[in-house]
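Collaborator request, handled under Task 6.
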Amino acid sequence: MNSISKLNLFTKLALGFIVGCLVILVILRLPFVFTRGMSNGVGCWMEGTVKDINPVGENIQLYFYGKVTLKQYQAPRLSKLSVIVVNCDRGIPATLSQGEIFIATTPDERGGAVRHKSGELLKILNAAAAQRRTVKFELTGPTLAFEGGRITNVVSAVVRATDADLK
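Structure tokens returned to the collaborator:
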């Protein structure tokens, strides 16, 4: 091989590697970043313990004890983060449903699995309540009721929840 064909081969391999890396980034992270930032969206998380779990059709009624966190990344730079944490240690009623796309994650959120069957959120919540374990879940399209400076009710679909039994 002469030096020009070696350079062309190297260029093609490097370009292929770069394109492959970009495709992986787009699939894994960029849609999440762009959808959050472009709309000035608010992320809503609940972290704490649950009890008095009662399934009603597709919904799950329960009492939640912990904190509700609201995070807003503002466009166009996505660098400004506003965070509000509401203490709900006295307990609040919540009506939750499993989102169309639902991901069970490990407690450290370093691993996860998509759960397609309905009832998976209910299993996670029942196990957390029975073991008195902390569970963290991400809400989508939540409706939060406030009164006297505190949250009095939450109605939402859950798209992600920590599962201590996930291995």
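The cover message to the collaborator said: "Residues 43-162 form a domain with the OB fold (Dihydrolipoamide Acetyltransferase, E2P) fold (CATH 2.40.50). The beta strands are 42-56, 59-74, 80-105, 112-115, 135-147, 150-162. Please let us know whether this matches your experimental observations."
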